[in-house]
Automatic annotation (TrEMBL), chain A:
Residues 9-89 form the ACT domain. PROSITE patterns: ACT. This is ACT domain-containing protein.
Length: 143, 442
C-alpha cells in the first residue's frame, strides 16, 4: 500500500560549471522525457541535480550513456493545502515520529503546491502522513 | 676481489651464491667499506673525480666508515655525458673488452666500458637473480630484448648461460616467430619489456597459441604496475618478476624481485645504496621515499661515486623471509617529476597510488599548484567513479573528505580535493602531464 506512494527521483552528479544543468535538461528533452520538478543542491565545487520525470528508467539509461553519474532516490510528494501552517504541520508529524527530512523542494502541481520530501524512513513517513490526514501523490501521477 | 663474487654454491636450490646473498650485517659492512675504499682508489684514475674530490675538500683517505660516504660528491648523468666518449674510463682501452651505450634521448649517449672482470661480475649478478626466482639449468630461456648496444640483451644472455640455462637469443621483432620458438623449443622463461609481453600475449591469443611451457616472466626496462602484473600473469600463464637496472651500473641485474614479489633485492655487496631527498641531497632512512643513489663497489672500467639514478624508491623496513638483504621498493617515478609543496616533497605517483586504493573515485587526476598569500596550495581534481555515487549530496561531501584524508596521510599535506564528472579529465598517452604548476606565473 505504502509503496504506491514512493516516487522514483533521479539524482545526477554535476560539477558546478556553466552548462551542466542545460546539458542534463537538453538530453532529457531530446529523449522526449518530461520533467515535472527540478532542483539543484550545491556543495563545494559540485552539486546534485534532482529531477522528477515521467520515465525515470529511460532517463537513467540516457544520462548514464552520456557519461553522467546517475542514481535513483526514493522520495514522496505531499500535497500542500492552500492555507497557512501546512508545512509546519507535516514537519511536526514527521518530527514526532523521529523521521528526518533530509531535503525538500516544492513544485506547483496541477491543482495544488506539492512538496517533494526525501526522508530517512520512507514507508514510516507515508503511514504517518496519511494517518494524520495528509494527502500524498501516488507515484502513478508521474510515471 | 673477483673471487668473492663468483663462488658458486651448489648446496642450495634457490641461491646462486648463498654466502654473499645471505651475508651477515657485520660482514657486509666490512666488505662494503673495503670495496668502497677500492672504488675511491679506482676513481682517482679519472680526471673528473680527482677534481670533484678536490672541490669537495675530501681525500680518498678521509673515507673510513660507510657514514663517511655522505661526504663524497654526487655524480650526475650530465657529467657522464660531458665525458663522451671515453672520459669516464678508469682503465686504458686495451683493458676494455666491450662497450655499451645508454639511449641518447637527451643529448649525447653515455658510453659504458667493461673490463673482463666487469663482465664476470655482471653475469654473476644476473645469475643470482635468475636462480633467486627459481630458474636453473633445466630451463629454456628466451631473451626477447634488443641485443647490441642496449645492455638488456647481452647482460641477460651471459648471466643465463652462466646458470647453464638453454638460451634462445631471440632478440626483438617478428612476434609470430617468437611465439613459434616458445612453442617449438619448450621455452619456460622469457625476458622482455612489459609492453612487448603484452603484445606477445595479444598475438598469441589471436593465433590460439597456448604457450603451455612458459612459467616465468622477467620484465624490466620500463615501469609497470601491479595491475599490469596480474594481467600479464593471467594472459601469459607466468609468474612475473620485476627487474631493475641501469646501464651506468652495468645494465639490468642491479635489483630484482624474489619469489615474495614485495620489493626488489639490491645486491649490497656490489652496490652501496643511499636514498636521498632529491631537493636537498640529505640522506633519508628506511621507509622514506626519495631518489636512489648508488656507488658501485666492484666496477673496474667505469667506477662511479654516489651516482644519482633519478629513480624514486625507498629502502624497505622489513626483512625478507627469503633471507637475503634489505630490499628497495618498486620504482615509483623519476625525481624530475618531484614537486616541492610547502617544503614537502610530493611525487605524482604517490597521488596515483592513493587514488588507486579508493574505489569511489577514478584513477585519472589533475594537480594544480598555486601560491596564495605566499603559501603553496595544491588542488587535486578526481573523477567520481561508477560505484561512488549514491545520489546524496552529503555522501559526495563525505567522499571528498575521505579522499583528502587519504592524501593527507600519504603526502603529509593538506590538499583541496575537487570531484569532477567521469570522463571529464584529460587522458594522456605516454608521459602524462597531470601537473599544472602556476606558482611561477603571476
Ligand atoms: Zn626476498
Amino acid at each position: 500500500m505504502e509503496k504506491s506512494y514512493i516516487i522514483k527521483q533521479i539524482s545526477i552528479f554535476s560539477e558546478n560549471r556553466p552548462g551542466r544543468l542545460a546539458a542534463v535538461a537538453g538530453a532529457l528533452k531530446e529523449a522526449g522525457i518530461n520533467i515535472f520538478a527540478f532542483s539543484i543542491a550545491e556543495a563545494d565545487g559540485f552539486g546534485v541535480v534532482r529531477a522528477l520525470v515521467d520515465r525515470p528508467e529511460d532517463a537513467h539509461r540516457r544520462l548514464t550513456d552520456l557519461g553522467f553519474r546517475v542514481s535513483f532516490t526514493d522520495v514522496i510528494g505531499v500535497k500542500m493545502r492552500d492555507e497557512p501552517g501546512g508545512l509546519s504541520e507535516i514537519a511536526g508529524v514527521l518530527g514526532d515520529a523521529a523521521i528526518n527530512i533530509e531535503y525538500a523542494y516544492a513544485y506547483s502541481g496541477r491543482d495544488a503546491a506539492v512538496l517533494i520530501l526525501r526522508v530517512d524512513q520512507v514507508e514510516d513517513a507515508i503511514r504517518k502522513i496519511l494517518g494524520s490526514g495528509g494527502e500524498l501523490l501516488k507515484a502513478s501521477t508521474f510515471h | 676481489m673477483r673471487g668473492h663474487l663468483t663462488t658458486r654454491d651448489v648446496q642450495s636450490d634457490m641461491f646462486w651464491n648463498t654466502a654473499m646473498e645471505t651475508i651477515s650485517a657485520a660482514d657486509l659492512e666490512a666488505l662494503q667499506i673495503k670495496r668502497l675504499k677500492w672504488t675511491l682508489h679506482q676513481t682517482q684514475n679519472v680526471a673528473l673525480y680527482r677534481s670533484k674530490l678536490k672541490e669537495a675538500g675530501v681525500a680518498p683517505g678521509d673515507i673510513k666508515t660507510l657514514e663517511d660516504a655522505a661526504k663524497l660528491p654526487f655524480t650526475t648523468k650530465k657529467e657522464l655525458q660531458a665525458g663522451y666518449p671515453f672520459g669516464l674510463l678508469a682503465v686504458p682501452l686495451r683493458q676494455i673488452v666491450r662497450i655499451h651505450t645508454t639511449s641518447g634521448t637527451t643529448g649525447k649517449p653515455t658510453v659504458v666500458g667493461y673490463t673482463r672482470g666487469d663482465l664476470e661480475s655482471w653475469s654473476e649478478l644476473i645469475a643470482r637473480n635468475l636462480v633467486m626466482v627459481g630458474l636453473s639449468d633445466e630451463d629454456v630461456f628466451q631473451n626477447a630484448v634488443n641485443y647490441g648496444l642496449f645492455t638488456g640483451g647481452l647482460g641477460f644472455h651471459y648471466g643465463a648461460e652462466k646458470v647453464g640455462m638453454t638460451v634462445v637469443p631471440s632478440a626483438t621483432g617478428n612476434t609470430q616467430r617468437q611465439i613459434e620458438m616458445i612453442e617449438d623449443f619448450g621455452v619456460t622463461a622469457i625476458h622482455c619489456t612489459p609492453s612487448y609481453a603484452m603484445h606477445l600475449a595479444e598475438v598469441a591469443e589471436s593465433t590460439g597459441a597456448e604457450l603451455a611451457t612458459l612459467k616465468t616472466g622477467i620484465f624490466g626496462a620500463e615501469p609497470w604496475s601491479e595491475s599490469m602484473r596480474s594481467e600479464l600473469e593471467g594472459r601469459l600463464g607466468v609468474t612475473a618478476f620485476d627487474s631493475y637496472g641501469l646501464s651506468e651500473m652495468y645494465g639490468p641485474g642491479v635489483a630484482f624481485e624474489c619469489p615474495e614479489r614485495d620489493g626488489l633485492h639490491i645486491w649490497h655487496d656490489s652496490y652501496l645504496v643511499e636514498i636521498i631527498d632529491p631537493a636537498t641531497g640529505e640522506v633519508l632512512g628506511p621507509g622514506e621515499r626519495g631518489e636512489l643513489v648508488i656507488t658501485p663497489l666492484v666496477k673496474e672500467a667505469m667506477p662511479l661515486l654516489r651516482y644519482r639514478t633519478g629513480d624514486i624508491t625507498m629502502l624497505m623496513e622489513e626483512d625478507c623471509p627469503c633471507g637475503r638483504g634489505r630490499k628497495i621498493a618498486r620504482i615509483t617515478g623519476r625525481s624530475d617529476d618531484m614537486l616541492v609543496i610547502r617544503g614537502i616533497n610530493v611525487f605524482p605517483s604517490q597521488i596515483e597510488h592513493v587514488l588507486l586504493g579508493l574505489p569511489e573515485v577514478g584513477e585519472q587526476f589533475m594537480v594544480y599548484i598555486d601560491r596564495v598569500k605566499h603559501l603553496d596550495e595544491m588542488t587535486i581534481e578526481v573523477e567520481m567513479s561508477r560505484a561512488g555515487f549514491s545520489g546524496e549530496l552529503q555522501d559526495l561531501a563525505r567522499i571528498q573528505k575521505h579522499v583528502a584524508g587519504a592524501l593527507h596521510n600519504a603526502l603529509g599535506l593538506r590538499t583541496t580535493v575537487k570531484l569532477v564528472e567521469p570522463g571529464s579529465l584529460p587522458r594522456f598517452e605516454g608521459k602524462a602531464r597531470r601537473i599544472v604548476d602556476r606558482r611561477g606565473a603571476l
